[in-house]
Amino acid sequence: MAGERFPADFVWGAATAAYQIEGAVREDGRGVSIWDTFSHTPGKIADGTTGDVACDSYHRYGEDIGLLNALGMNAYRFSIAWPRIVPLGAGPINQAGLDHYSRMVDALLGAGLQPFVTLYHWDLPQPLEDRLGWGSRATATVFAEYADIVVRQLGDRVTHWATLNEPWCSAMLGYYLGVHAPGHTDLKRGLEASHNLLLGHGLAVQAMRAAAPQPLQIGIVLNLTPTYPASDSPEDVAAARRFDGFVNRWFLDPLAGRGYPQDMLDYYGAAAPQANPEDLTQIAAPLDWLGVNYYERMRAVDAPDASLPQAQRLDDPDLPHTADREVYPEGLYDILLRLHNDYPFRPLYITQNGCALHDEIAEDGGIHDGQRQAFFEAHLAQLQRALAAGVPLKGYFAWSLLDNFEWAMGLSMRYGICYTNFETLERRIKDSGYWLRDFIAGQRG
Ligand code: GCO
């Protein structure tokens, strides 16, 4: 690789999400989330699995911390399960849930790992969904209350916080495209959900700053997809612009204080959410950092018959493919440069980047995921290019620490740098994990 070093204070970590790894879904007073309901609904998860046990990290977080140490990382990005803290979504607080995360934070700090806490990685308490979920403004308000509760408990030790992880996925996969919990298929509901998520984010930022015993570094994590037209035709160019509006600008613009993009408001017409000016002010609450999750690009073809935004993805068959996506490392550079040039968010973190492969334990006991190593190498090289171009990048989190419950794909889609045996729950570092360890060590020199 290019030889340039990453900055000495660069944050190197791995990321996970509560429902994907914790299991222990009925333990210590945890309430039910929309993902419990969804994963137990026949036909929703490709391999019929659930997150009931997953990696059992609720009990085995000490082992997970051992893995992070063995990998030489200095940070861990994980999420807190709202239903463990406020089992009904609003109302009584479950102290046992808070105590769990408090112990975990102490263990991380004791092991020299900086916690990066995400407050919402998709596990909405089911009782809130029963009252319209993110379709309701009331959910934004109670999200800020939940954020306040957690910050009061952990804000003395945790400085780096993300409110939401990938609100596009919560809103659009959950309420419009129906492939994630809660599984609705209504564009208007999806757009309302996106607005209430953003509003909840803004309200939470203010509640967190007010509740914190020390200054916090608060950000939000977005899935951003660099989008390119598949041809020069005006139709494909317009499709790319729509898709960019759908996934990227719809979130970036209001967070940057620019309101929703006018072309998308026009395009959505009557389905567009009612956003009063005060909401937009709340949503634009100043941020301390932005997290970027990057997996793939979008090469857009105009597709009038496809669901909104009427754009279809055209992969390049000559590029490498993982178990579920095309590999396009240059897209990471492109999206970072665009953020740097067009938006005010500083600094930036890569909060997720990784790939799924059909990993198996070899006869020698190792997991030889050379393709994943190549994936990391190529993406880290793009980060070095971005740094050289002046992008204020402060950290990188591999997705994921462990093979885990990959949402609608279940347990069979393996994204870990550590292998999980879902029968014995044994973890084992894959070759790509060892490669990352050596790479990180090399950066520290
Ligand atoms: C996300 C998802 C992750 C997925 C990962 C791979 O935030 O993007 O929440 O949980 O596991 O993206 O698809």
From TrEMBL:
Catalytic activity field: Hydrolysis of terminal, non-reducing beta-D-glucosyl residues with release of beta-D-glucose
InterPro entries, per the entry: GH, GH_1_N_CS, Glyco_hydro_1, Glyco_hydro_1_beta-glucosidase
Gene Ontology MF term list: beta-glucosidase activity
Keyword Hydrolase attributed: yes
Transmembrane among keywords: no
Entry-linked Pfam families: Glyco_hydro_1
Transmembrane segments: none
GO biological process: cellulose catabolic process
Enzyme Commission (EC) number: 3.2.1.21
Sorted UniProt keywords: Carbohydrate metabolism, Cellulose degradation, Glycosidase, Hydrolase, Polysaccharide degradation
Similarity annotation: Belongs to the glycosyl hydrolase 1 family.
PANTHER family: GLYCOSYL HYDROLASE, LP05116P
The name this protein goes by in its record: beta-glucosidase
Native organism taxonomy: unclassified sequences
